[in-house]
Specification:
This protein is α/β, with parallel strands linked by helices. It contains four helices and ten strands, in the order E-H-H-E-H-E-E-E-E-E-E-E-E-H. Bound molecules: glutamine. The site of glutamine has 11 residues, from helix 3.
């Protein structure tokens, strides 16, 4: 998706691969496994240090990794966004679904709809004052932004709709670059 939009993108698996990047996408998957692998491969602290200064876009399990808290309890999290997420809030794998998501990216009065693909998706149960809600689905918060950190609980890479990736590149990455 990022390459399609003209960005240079590489896969990051080891700490040194973060060097020189403008931003990072943490994809979906399984957040407890991701946390264990991050600890095993020495990626947890480098990711925290990277995300303190650079834009990060977390999708689904990636959103969970950005959170400070899960409703369920302890697991390795990056703890960067002032949000509490509830894992699997929309149900298990068999309850995966597509649904309209209300997007509010630029200003409060500007709402658009996109299709969200939800796969064992979390929702954001609680958030602090620094967090802006950018997406909702059926009354639940499914997208949040806190400065240079963006997270959604669905999978925007699984549709042809590039708006969220464009927004990440245009607003979040560009703003962070301008501020640097
Ligand atoms: N339910 C998964 C978790 O808790 C996330 C699912 C996903 O990323 N599609 O990590």
């Amino acid at each position: 998706m990022l390459r399609h939009l003209g960005a240079d993108a590489i896969e990051v698996r080891l700490p040194e691969q973060l060097n020189g990047l403008d931003g990072l996408v943490i994809p979906g998957g399984e957040s407890t496994t991701m946390g264990k692998l991050m600890d095993t491969f020495g990626l947890t602290e480098p990711l925290r240090a990277f995300a303190a200064k650079h834009p990060v876009f977390g999708t689904c399990a990636g959103l969970i990794m950005l959170a400070s808290r899960t409703a369920e309890g302890t697991q390795t999290l990056l703890g960067l966004m002032d949000i509490t997420v509830r894992r699997n809030a929309f149900g298990s794998q068999v309850h995966s679904f597509e649904a309209p998501v209300d997007l509010c990216l630029e200003n409060e009065d500007d709402h658009t709809v996109m299709t969200g693909v939800f796969i064992r998706a979390p929702w954001v149960e609680q958030h602090g004052p620094a967090v802006q809600v950018v997406a909702t689905c059926d009354g639940h918060t499914v997208g949040v932004r806190q400065g240079h950190l963006l997270g959604v609980s669905f999978h925007p890479e699984l549709t042809d709709d590039t708006r969220l990736h464009e927004y990440f590149l245009r607003e979040v990455v560009a703003e962070a670059r301008a501020a640097a």
